[in-house]
Amino acid sequence: MNLKAVIIIVWQLFGLAFFCFGKENPNTLMSYNPPASFISDCVRPTTQYNMSVNNVRAKIRNGGDFFEMAGYITPVPASVQLPVSAIYTASIWLAGKDIAGNIRLSASTYRTEGYDYFSGPLDVNGITESQTCKNWDQRFSVNGDNIKKHIQAWNNAQLPGQHLDCTKIPVDVKYWPAQGNPYFAEKYGWELPDQPLAAYWDYNSDGKYNPCDGDYPMLDDNKCQKGFHEGKLVPAEINFLVYNDNGNEHTLSGPNRIQMEIQVNAYAYSAHDELNDMTFYQYKLINKSQDDLTDAYISWFVDPDLGCYKDDYIGYDPVHKMAFAYNQDAIDGINGSSCDGTNTYGGDIPMIGFDFFRSPMASKNFLKDEAGNIVFDANGNKVLIDPLPGSVMSDTLVELGITSFNYMENGSVGNFPAGTHEPRSGSEDGFKFIKDWRDGTPFFWRLILVVLTRLNLLSREIQMTPQAGQCVYQIWQTVTEKR
User: Fold this and answer.
1) 382, 404 contact by CB (below 8 A)
2) pTM higher than 0.85
3) Where are the domains of the chain?
4) Which of 159, 186, 157 is nearest to 174 (CA)?
5) How many whole angstroms separate alpha carbon 88 and alpha carbon 176?
6) Cα 466 from Cα 289, distance rounded (Å)
7) pLDDT of 169-225, one tens digit each?
């Protein structure tokens, strides 16, 4: 029997809409970037960890990039098998224009190139310092079984004559880096800033994390309908990381920073169904800038290497709104299943798909006539328009889905047009790739099949005011079937 693998990567984005980074005085046409004296001297984060709780071994890193150097191994090999990776690297790109029309861009591609992200949160002014970056250059992990034990212990303590022994709270639950945790400094030697950090269930709704009050680590949920103690499935492991784009000068995209704080939950389930082939990545983006950003985008940069990197093609299905990568023939590799030392899938050919499971929520207003009545289209639907830049009021929210799909060529391999090459460091090429080729040539078609490529999926016009958050939820899934 031939084991075929179909790898589906899905993104769910939710949270506050319209990625407009509101400024205190939106009528003043100026661009704000913190003076050089406000920029810290943070260095690039080094923390990395292989999350391996099911049939996927995923390398997670603090600082914008995941799976670097072929770190998405699936399926997890048996002891006599060689590991094969389906992804070489993946990262988040953020871009937009301020009111003066200046492009703000933060991105990550490869560790061998420049970088824009630094570990740790930003303060309310969008600033950090080197010691803060050093403190947060780590992951904070909690085991799902320990969350369950803590919930059970708390429930038992509510019975007559019982109490919770706080000295027996699991260490990873007790020292979770959530706002107000009174125990955190006991382990780490430094105090948490008094601002929202790792997500948690706030049992008594006091706005402070205290496991002795029944609180426990949680996942961000824009609806917050129920917690783990109410029947929600508990991951086998949750890893929390936080980074920003204002810890130092940008050496990849250029000088104009956004002042964005990015909180990440990387987690997975250990199960006996398809959940065992999935890993999940939840991003919370918090604007700490004083600027409004319009024409703004969230993008996923992905370099899919399905085993051998020399025989992969990509395409886009506009009906299902899914990008995909696949092998060019029946054998993964060149000259048979070899690939210059890279492990391959051989005859067990995979495919990989990329989709938004739930897209960003964008603010929209209802179009109204001169009398103030809502305008309807021919099908009886309300006509929607974008709110004015800087506005925090809207009539409704709509999901955007994938609004753009693009690819870029590895300029060092093959003879490709220069305009399709990957962005140049220190330039605004990354923003150009949202709507045009690097040289400004407009796109003329969407369904593309090209070898040796990287790809971008984008969702645009997501607006939020300073200190507001936009949550991004990714699912990376591997589905296998025997034929």
Assistant:
1) no
2) no
3) 3-139+239-354+402-482, 141-238, 361-399
4) 186
5) 31
6) 6
7) 999 999 999 999 999 999 999 999 999 999 999 999 999 999 999 999 999 865 545
